[in-house]
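A reminder from the course coordinator: this example appears on the midterm review sheet, so study it carefully.

Given structure:
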């Protein structure tokens, strides 16, 4: 459709919508009513494939709020529709009281990333080195600098 002339025709005899499209010099007839239905079905399939994040947070309950934050973080990090569906099912079951908090965390543990468990706590990292290694490195560096001149 980018390069070519497009026009639409309404066929009253069959009550269908047709569109003739020239693509790279070839004329292609398209039943755009049927195409519209196919696109609508595909969009419904796409919506059902990609579940959305549930907004059921309860800040007044500390335990549920913490569980919802874990769910939300896991949901944002995963892109697999099946995983997202299982996360949604777990948080709904927790909200409805079908499972307890330990079961919920056990269910979502596979979706949580390991780097979220690594905490820095603001500590400085100290690299150690043996005195002999330090002497060898400094002597090598001095030798390189001396001979570069």
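Designed residues:
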């Amino acid at each position: 459709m980018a390069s070519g002339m497009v026009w639409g025709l309404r066929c009253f005899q069959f009550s269908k919508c047709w569109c003739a499209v020239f693509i790279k010099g070839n004329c292609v007839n398209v039943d755009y009513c049927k195409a519209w239905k196919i696109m609508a079905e595909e969009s419904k399939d796409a919506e059902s494939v990609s579940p959305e994040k549930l907004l059921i947070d309860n800040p007044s309950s500390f335990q549920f709020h913490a569980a919802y934050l874990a769910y939300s973080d896991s949901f944002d990090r995963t892109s697999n529709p099946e995983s997202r569906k299982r996360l949604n099912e777990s948080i709904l079951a927790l909200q409805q009281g079908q499972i307890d908090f330990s079961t919920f965390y056990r269910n979502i543990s596979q979706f949580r990333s390991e780097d979220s468990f690594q905490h820095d706590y603001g500590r400085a990292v100290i690299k150690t080195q043996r005195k002999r290694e330090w002497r060898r490195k400094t002597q090598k560096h001095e030798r390189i600098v001396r001979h570069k001149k």
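The mean pLDDT is 76. The helical segments are 32-49, 62-77, 81-95, 101-108, 131-148.
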